[in-house]
Amino acid sequence: MSVKTFLLPDLGEGLAEAELVKWLVAVGDTVVIDQPIAEVETAKSMVEVPSPYAGTVHQLHGAAGEMIQVDTPLISVLEEGSEAEPATASQPVREVALSYREEERAGVAEPEAEGSGNVLIGYGTPDGLAAKARKRRPRGGAVGTAPAQAQVRAAVSVPLRAPLVISPLVRKLARDRGIDIATLAGSGIGGLILRSDVEAASAAPVAAAVVAAPAPAAAPAPAAAPAAQPAVVAPRAASAETGELDSRSGLAVASRTPITGVRKTIAQAMARSRSEIPEATVWVDVDATALLEMRSSLKARDPQNTPGLLAFIARFVVAGLQKYPELNSRIETNAQGDVEIVGFDGINLGIAAQTDRGLMVPAIRNAQQLSARGINAELARLTEVTRSGKATVAELTSGTFTLNNYGVFGVDGSAAIINYPEVAILGVGRIIDKPWVVNGELAVRKVTELTLAFDHRVCDGGVAAGFLRFVADAMENPAGALADL
Questions:
Q1: Torsion region of 34: left, alpha or beta (phi above 0 gives left; psi -120 to 50 gives alpha)
Q2: Are 352 and 403 in contact (CB under 8 A)?
Q3: Measured on CA atoms in the order 43, 47, 49, 50, is the torsion positive or negative?
Q4: Cα–Cα distance between 223 and 229 in angstroms, integer?
Q5: Does residue 92 or residue 381 have the better pLDDT?
Q6: Are 5 and 96 a contacting pair, CB within 8 Å?
Q7: pLDDT tens for each residue of 16-35
Q8: Radius of gyration in angstroms for the set of CA atoms belonging to the chain, rounded to a whole number
Q9: Half-sphere exposure of 293 toward its Cβ, with a 13 Å CA cutoff?
């Protein structure tokens, strides 16, 4: 019997987990090396995972929608020419899974051992219990293997002492909700405790309180009991529909949506941007009539190859960043602990794109080397792969400046949050008809608003205003600007 178990690999940038979106194979299917077997979504992108083995699918470790930790079993394949034995087919899978459960047990079975015991996938406590446990349990047929495996099986059979939890996020969720995770019965493979188990347990106390409320008390109630009685009756009525009542508002809780995957990454980046970057904002109204007229003229002559308005604006932004490179930089702390402004030889222009998975910012790499037509073609490609979930981690994280066209949502302006760790973001509002003074006379013009949010640590208002005015002037006189680019 030769069953090969494939562990979920690190899909980039040290991400510790991924959501299993869907299986591309089923138990009993024949697979070949490098055949896609599953689609998984990380905090950065959606990717297809290829099989490193050829043979017959023996077992799928996980269901669609489940979070799977890196370096834990994803799929087991029975190699060609082998026959699985029911009694031992799962042995390789169980052995790998238990090794990680041992790490999660660090500090539980032997609290007197050294080490923090706070072990994440891929990050251990070398001097702690996890390292000692691995040394005590040799693999294969070495002397002492059977007693070590018996010890592991004994630990697994006592859930109060060693709860089967791989994900540190599940442990944190249980702590935040005041749940003793050792009392839970896991619904995952081998009794693994999942996020859904913790969420189900968190609703149990409320339901218990509702059932117990009508029962008479065994002892006489204190004097304050009558005043508290309405607070007991009201939750019972509200909780009958949803099973949970919000203690702050008194309203029934309609839903709870975990912040995971891309939304979690966006939330963390936005919070970090607001807490770390001392940002300032400048804005200006721009007469874009000439830009629209120029593009209409080009489109009349060559409908297929005329860049979109955003491509022209992006080209002006790139030229502005070449003139004001302070806005195309990053704040970093060096090895000595000193804060530095890191400049770049090139511009990776990020374009904010709204997708079903949240706001993404794919980057046009080395945009300074492209014309407006080149930017337009790369923008179309990046938008397509990003919205289909196929953009790479590098494409989504390599930007050095962000351009955000929120005018497509019908708004004029926005106090945008800088896309951390960048130092500036330029927003473009909708283009609408407005009264405008031209050569001393009132006229109706196509007007938009440009808004620049910037990190005040890298430059002062003069640089930010100079950049913003450069882009605005280029939009108001596009032919002259393009002649110089």
A1: left
A2: yes
A3: negative
A4: 11
A5: 381
A6: yes
A7: 778 888 899 999 999 998 88
A8: 29
A9: 11
CATH of 263-484, one of 3.30.360.10, 3.40.309.10, 3.30.559.10, 3.40.50.150: 3.30.559.10
pTM above 0.85, yes or no: no
Tokens at 202, concatenated = 């968190």
* Nearest to 121, CA basis, from 66, 50, 73, 193: 73
Question: Cα 316 from chain centroid?
Answer: 31
Would you state the pLDDT for residue 201? 82
Beta carbons within 8 Å of 378's beta carbon, 6+ residues apart: 364, 367, 370
Rounded-to-integer distance, Cα 360 and Cα 379, Å: 13
Segment 321-360, tens digit of pLDDT: 999 999 999 999 988 889 999 999 999 999 998 888 778 8
Cα dihedral sign, 168-174-179-185:
negative
Distance between CA atoms of 49 and 36, rounded to whole angstroms? 5
Instruction: Report the C-alpha gap between 53 and 83 in whole angstroms.
Output: 15
| Buried/exposed 198-212: b ≥16 CB within 10 Å, e otherwise | bbebbbeebeeebee
Res. 158: pLDDT tops 50:
no
Contacts of 251 (CB under 8 A, 6+ apart): 238, 245
Tokens 């065994």 identify what position? 218
Q: What confidence category does residue 48 fall into, taking pLDDT thresholds of 50, 70 and 90? A: confident
Beta bridge partners of residue 47, listed in sequence order: 40
Cis peptide before 226 (omega within 30 of 0): no
Task: Please give the class, per CATH, of domain 3-156.
Answer: mainly beta
The helix-helix angle for 461-476 and 309-323 (nearest 10°) equals 140
* Domain layout of the chain by residue ranges: 3-156, 163-213, 263-484
| 133-171 CB burial, b ≥16 within 10 A, e <16 | beeebeeeeeeeeeeeeeebeebbeebeebbbbbbbbbb
Other Cβ atoms less than 10 A from the Cβ of 390: the count is: 13
Q: Are strands 441-455 and 424-428 parallel, antiparallel or unpaired?
A: antiparallel
Cα(328)–Cα(207) distance, rounded to whole angstroms?
55
Question: Cα(133)–Cα(138) distance, rounded to whole angstroms?
Answer: 10
DSSP 129-159: HHHHHHHHS--TT-TTHHHHHHHHHHHHT-T
Cβ–Cβ < 8 Å for 387, 353: yes
How long is the chain? 485
User: Of 322, 311, 267, 273, whose CA–CA distance to 425 is shortest?
Assistant: 273
- The most confident of the ranges 134-138, 393-397, 451-455 is 451-455
- Residues taking part in catalysis: 456
Is the Cβ–Cβ distance between 458 and 326 less than 8 Å?
yes
Q: Just give the CATH number of 163-213.
A: 4.10.320.10
